[in-house]
Amino acid sequence: MSFASHYSYWITILLLVTGLYILIARGNLVKKLIGLGIFQTSVYLLYIAPGKLIGGTAPILAEGFRTYSNPLPHVLILTAIVVGVATLALGLALVVRIHESYGSIEEDDLLTADRADGNT
Amino acid sequence: MSPHLIILQVVLPLLCAPLIVLLRSARLAWLLSLAVSWGTLLIAGALWWQVDQSGPMSYAVGNWPAPWGIEVRVDRLSSFVLLLIGLSAALVAPYARVSVAAELPDDQVYLLYSMYCLCLSGLLGMTVTGDAFNLFVFLEISSLSTYVLIALGRRRRALLAAYQYLLMGTVGATFYVIGVGLLYLMTGTLNMADMAARLGEVRELRPVITALAFITVGMGLKLALFPLHQWLPNAYASAPSAVSAFLAATATKVSIYVLLRFWFSVFGAQALFTHLPIAEVLVALSLAAIVVASGVALFQQDLKRLFAWSSVAQIGYITLGIGLANIQGLSAAIVHLFNHGLMKGAIFLALGAVALRCGGVTTFEQVAGLGRRMPLAATTVLLGGLSLIGVPGTTGFITKWQLVQGALASGQPWLAAMIVATSLIAVGYVWRFVEAAWLRPPTALSAPPGEAPASMTWMALLAGAACVYFGFDTTFTLDAATAAARALLEHQP
After folding, report:
1. In terms of DSSP H, where are the helices of B58-151?
2. Which of A92, B88, B225, B363 is the most exposed place for a label (fewest CB within 10 A)?
3. Domain segments of chain B: what residues?
4. How large is the average pLDDT for residues A64-93?
């Protein structure tokens, strides 16, 4: 049945919308970054799952190895994970700086403070 | 000419960035960035000339042949965008020394130059790469460095602006990767030319259309396509002056280039505009961007913020040209990439000069009487402003003229009327500046008499003068844009 055989895509979509929802709906800057992390994780799954064949091995040209998994998506996602880590690190660093200068990491408080600064 | 030039211009700034961090000297950092920026302009000029003479160039990175290895490609469109990046970098780098030293604590100055080199490298990489995933890597290199550059702004709201841009930008980039992932699943390749060739039979399938949607929305976030523009005004208004000028001139333009590359070179104009209502949606969004953002700009108090909102409107003109999907409209869009880069570069450079004299603030109170206090800076903003309106004799007029012709050629005279009518809103906000600068007497808050240091004033004025020069002599800009547009439209994958 197609629903069961495509379960990795369903998980991808679930992670994607969960992450995006947290990103939009939460006011706490750290929680927003958590949402962003979940959102990015969905992409890792989208790439990696189709590259895997059940019973497949690394592409080795030798006797006894017939079914190969595609290694390229895994390598691509290694890059994407590094990018994701860098983004998350920078985001958290910004949150620390925001907390130092505003004294809060709740979006509503920050926007109120910004308005009080005279920047609309 | 060395075939390695294409990759060399990406590698040079990429190597300079860590070198600057190791040197930890503000002066050496600036010298290196200056050398890299001018080197970029030289290489971009050489590549443009080469492409003009003998057609597109391709380079296999690491000597791995194209569909497997990463291909780096320069054609008419990318060489034109490279020139814009090179020119902006060459104008901003000499300007940055005084401006950055005044706006940042001494121990952070070299970090800004390091990030600037990374950002430059990322933007150049996005423009030359022929590999869809490699493009994502360069996109993130430029984006991550941009977030840091914005966060270096002197006021605390810069941090919040950088954070908001980080969220929006990462969502945009991730959407782009999802799109590329779906395309990879359907075609089994990441090389753009190869992808275009293999899309043939599966072009109409749902995953491909979904990929198109993800890439369009993702890049729409990065290029601040209405209504995905919320990050832009805050980011440009609170970044350090030199950074605002560089980003306003280049960042969104490169994202528009990526969108053009995917729409026309990978998916193909024919399939795109005949089977999907992309053109109609784009025209509607562009008109909304022009009207709404220009309207918001009218009521801004901070000039940097005013012109940042105007950027959103001007991007609307670019996407409107793309939405017309004919040769005049598309060449208007491409020439406006360049023209708008020049105008906004000139305006933000001049505003940075004003900010330097007024302690970092550029509201209408500071520019009151600016025509007498800082005549050169005020003139530069005026030249850029006239160009934004599209007064004959400025670059803006060339764009509007092409756009109107494109609208008429596509049989939509009402669009031509809209293009002319919306220019009047630009007259409104530029007039507010003219009134404050020349008709109002200076107040206690106004800029003190005297220009900013020569390196800043003259770089800004040079960009302003270019707005006028390219308004009269279009042999370079318009011809290059038309040739690029023709190549895009004729390309049949």
Report:
1. 76-103, 109-128, 132-151
2. A92
3. 277-493
4. 90
Residue type, B150: I
Across the interface, of B140, B162, B174, the residue whose CB is closest to A43 is B174
How does pLDDT run across B64-119, given as a tens digit for each residue? 888 888 999 998 899 999 999 999 999 999 999 988 888 888 888 999 999 999 99
Tokens representing residue B81 in the block = 């965008």
Report helix angle B76-103 to B454-472, nearest 10: 150
Question: Smallest Cα–Cα separation from B93: which of B143, B29, B139?
Answer: B29
| C-alpha to C-alpha distance for B198 and B186, rounded to whole angstroms | 9
Tell me how far the alpha carbon of residue B182 is from its chain's centroid: 28
Kindly determine whether residue B147 and residue A90, on different chains, have CB atoms separated by under 8 Å. yes
A117/B155 CB distance under 8 A: yes
- The pair of three-digit structure tokens given for residue A100, joined into one six-digit string: 């130092």
Q: In this structure, how many other beta carbons lie within 10 angstroms of the beta carbon of residue B3?
A: 12
DSSP secondary structure string, A95-115? HHHHHHHHS--BHHHHHHHHH
pLDDT band for A58, please (50, 70, 90 cuts). confident
Please give the pLDDT value at position A120. Answer: 44
Test A98 with B302 for CB contact under 8 angstroms: no
Over chain B (493 residues), what is each successive 10-residue block's mean pLDDT? 84 92 90 93 92 88 85 91 93 90 87 93 94 94 94 89 93 94 90 86 82 93 89 90 92 93 86 81 92 91 91 92 88 92 92 85 84 88 91 89 90 89 90 89 81 86 90 86 86 63
* CA atoms lying within 13 Å on the CB side of residue B169: 30
Give me the residue label for tokens 């092409």.
Answer: B402
Q: Using a CB-CB distance cutoff of 8 angstroms, which residues of chain B are in contact with residue A88?
A: none
Instruction: Please tell me which of the candidates A32, A86, A110 has its beta carbon nearest to residue B167.
Output: A32
C-alpha distance from residue B331 to each of A96, B123, B479 (Å)? 46, 22, 9
pTM of the model: 0.93
Three-state DSSP at B363 gives: strand
Is B167 an 8 Å CB contact of chain A?
yes
- Output the CA torsion sign for B386, B388, B391, B396: positive
The residues facing B71 across adjacent strands are B60
DSSP assigned state of B58: E
Kindly list the residues from chain A whose CB atom is less than 8 angstroms away from the CB atom of residue B160.
98, 102, 110, 114
- Of B472, B321, B283, B347, nearest in space to B400 by CA: B321
Q: B137 and B177 in contact (C-beta within 8 Å)?
A: no
B159/A contact by beta carbon, under 8 A: yes
Distance in angstroms (rounded) separating the CA atoms of residues B213 and B301: 37
